[in-house]
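User:
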Amino acid sequence: PLTIDDYKAQNYGGSSYGEVDLRTATTKSVNTAFVALMNDVGVSETMALAKRMGISTSDYQEGTHGLSIALGSLDVSPLDMASAFGVFAARGERAEATPVVRVLDADGNVLEDNAEPERQRVLEEITADNVNEIMQGVLEAGGTAGDNGIDRPAAGKTGTAQENKDAWFVGYTPTLSTSVWMGYSDAPREMRNIGGVRGGITGGSLPAATWESFMTAALADVPVTDFTEPAPITDLADILRRRSRSGFDTRRLMEPQGTEPGVYVEELPAPAVNAPTATTTTAPEEDEREEGDDDEGGSLLDSLFPRQDDENKPPSRGRRAGD
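Assistant: Predicted structure:
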């Protein structure tokens, strides 16, 4: 269990996972990890992003609703969920959902055409690509919907309310996003022993199986496409290097030269900066170094904040990244 202020969260079935990364938290649907994440990011900030992604039916009120939102305490329509997950499929771009693709008159003239809707960017491509890569694990072996793959790249997320009163599966491919909700429309009550499923209904049982059946049929004649390979998110060391140079980035993208594919970079010397006295160290004399010290690799400080002499070496022009 996780307790933050007056709110207490626990995982499905009372399971405990200890410290986990986002990949494991998503694949295993670790509730406590996402409550902690929302606490770090902020409830209002999370809901602002959800709204930009298409969650419009929620009755969220700032200052009234808290961390329980992370576990689905607000009502949201299946259409909104499919639309929001479609942002991931579209690599961060959102288009308004519409039931009408095209309208033709009796002579075949186009009266309305929504086949290419206007799109708005709400997420960076690198963010969407990494989310796609992580959520593919939900449909792989060991994931909460690992038995419901559709023989093509797909990603998704399960959701199960307390006492199995609601169960969700929202999944997508690069071309289609689909949301499945199961519950009683008259009043929330526990769902157990339904459709051949023994025990409580979870998002990874009937909702995921329903999604699998629909997607298999809907995409039968659609070519298989893969998600874009995610680029690594900038690591802490790179951020610290930039900050130490007053935000100056020593790498500048250039147009590829010649016919070889690849990304070319031009290395530029960093401007002179005064070394912060709080981190200034004196290198020990040669005979004072401990056995096993590695001169070739340098210290962690050197790797994060290279000496000015190294930075002023003549730049290497037109070198391809990775060479």
